[in-house]
């Protein structure tokens, strides 16, 4: 089995109480079966507390009962985890132990990554102009392709990942500006697919974003405000480009989005749709940055992280929202 991951994957470490956001607030926290069995064997008062806070979700799976302000019941007043404090990290359920890591499994290959819903992951990605790159490791286990379907999936994955590397070469060509890189990526995708493709303009893209299911009212208000004021914000775009040297950072963001979403086309052949989704997504993030600049007269790293994180939380962690932006409306 081969494992592919971004070169910064092993640099990540949760900053816990120093985080300005909190992944233990506002998210449903699923309890996997193995953890549930473990919790049932903790013969202490704290074990009783854990069990008392586990309920069934709408789909019948187990999850923690959130408080009225949507805090995990084990997130204490210092924003630290009482399960870790009382039982150790080994007692965390899978989602708490793994977040913000994600995995995608293909025949013979596993892709690993870190979700940009986490501000520390955003910070690691944007901390320098070093190109985004992938590393590959093998666990030494022989890959056995037992069926024609296995062979076809493995071959398609290799084919798509090779094309992805070609796109990365375009993105990290320092002699080309970011807008030209997008043109070349779309052109390469047209040749790869053998058909013309077209990305949505800002107006049409924002109209689709307004139809996404919001995490909270803040997102709805943000999209409404952006939709009403994006043309005004773009009046400072030339000044923004001149003062904010962000070509490489947007290249890294686009490379990340392509990495996370493109090879899933193995399962549904949605090659051009996923490239368009990636390009439209980075253009949306860029537009958010321009709007921030138009309002503040500057764009700090903190601003960049906030815009990128909010996009990821809203879109990438909702299958319905991601599908809407990839496939469009039925």
Question: How is the secondary structure organized here?
Answer:
Elements: E1 2-6, H1 33-39, H2 45-52, E2 54-56, E3 62-64, H3 82-87, H4 94-98, E4 101-106, E5 109-114, H5 119-126, E6 134-138, H6 148-171, H7 178-193, H8 202-209, H9 217-233, H10 237-243, H11 247-261, H12 265-268, H13 271-296, H14 301-315, H15 319-327
Parallel strand pairs: 1-5
Antiparallel strand pairs: 1-6, 2-3, 4-5
Helix pairs in contact: 5-14, 6-7, 6-11, 7-13, 8-9, 9-13, 11-13, 13-14
Detailed description of the structure:
- By secondary structure, the chain is of the alpha+beta class.
- It contains 15 helices and 6 strands.
- It has a 4-stranded mixed beta sheet.
- A hairpin with a 5-residue loop joins β2 and β3.
- α6 (148-171) runs antiparallel to α7 (178-193).
- 26% of the residues are buried.
